[in-house]
Amino acid sequence: MSDVDLADLDAFAAVARARSFRGAAALRGASASTLSEAVRRLEARLDVRLLNRTTRSVTPTEAGERLLTRLAPALGEVAGALEELGSLRAAGPSGTLRLNAPTVVARFILPPIALRFLQAYPGVRLEIIAQDEFIDVLAAGYDAGIRYDERLEKDMIALPIGPREQRFATVAAPAYLAAHGTPRHPQDLLEHACIRHRFLSGASPAWEFSKGNELLRVAPKGPLVTNSPEMHLAAVEAGLGISYLFEDMVAPQLASGALVEVLPEWSERFTGPRLYYHSRRHMPPALRAFIDFVRAGR
Asked: Which of 69, 88, 210, 273 sits most deeply, having the most CB atoms within 10 A of its CB?
C-alpha cells in the first residue's frame, strides 16, 4: 500500500469525522467533489469500502472505523510536525552553516559580513574554516566555499562576495630600500631579497605584474619562504626583503609608513572572491539566508 496518497487518507479522515462531504469541505476550504474523488481513489487503491453513502448521511463502514481509529494519531503527528516546521520558518532560518574560505578572505573580508549576518539571523550557527588549498568543499562537508576565479563545475553557482576587484601590492620597509635601493622594474626583483609564500601543497606561485599590454611573471628568491601571514609581515617590516601581498593585508602598514609600496604602476588587479555553492533546489535554510544576504549587499 506504499502508493496510497497521504492527502487521500487525510481527506477520508475529515469526511469520516464530519459524517458529511459538505461539512468536511466547509471545514477544510475544499470542494465536496474533490473530497469525494479522494475517497473514491483511496477505496479503489485499498479495494475496500470505507464509507457508506446515502443522500442523507455518510457513515464509516467497519473497515472505515478501524482505519480512522489507527489513522487519527498518525495524522495528528504529521500535522504537529508541519506546524512545528511552520513555526521554525516563521522564527527565521536556523541550523549550522559551514563555509570554507582562503585565509585572506577569512581575515579581511568575511568578518564584517559574517557579523552582520549573525546579528540578522541569531538562529544560525556559522562555522568558517580558513584554508588556502583548493579542495572539494562539498565532499569535505561544507555548505559552500569562497575562492578566487576557480573553475566551477556546471552544477555550481558563483556569487560575488566582498570587493568586486582587488590588487596585489609589492612592499618593503623603508630601511630595506635605503640599504638596497628601490626596484624600478619587476625584473629588478631578481636582484633583491624577497619574502615568498608557499602553500601546504608545496606550490609557491610566481609574482604577476601587468602594465598596459605587458604581462610579466617573476619568481624571485630570498631569505624566507612561509605560509604564515604573521611571519611574512614580520619579516618584511623587519627589513629582511621585499614582499608581494594582498593590498588589504598591508593597508595599515602602508598608511602608517611602516611599509612602502614599490612598482605601483605594475600592480596586478584581479576579480574579487566569489561564494560558490551547489545549484540544488532545496538547500539548507541557513545557506539560503546567507546567499540572499550577500546578494542584497548587506
From this structure: 273
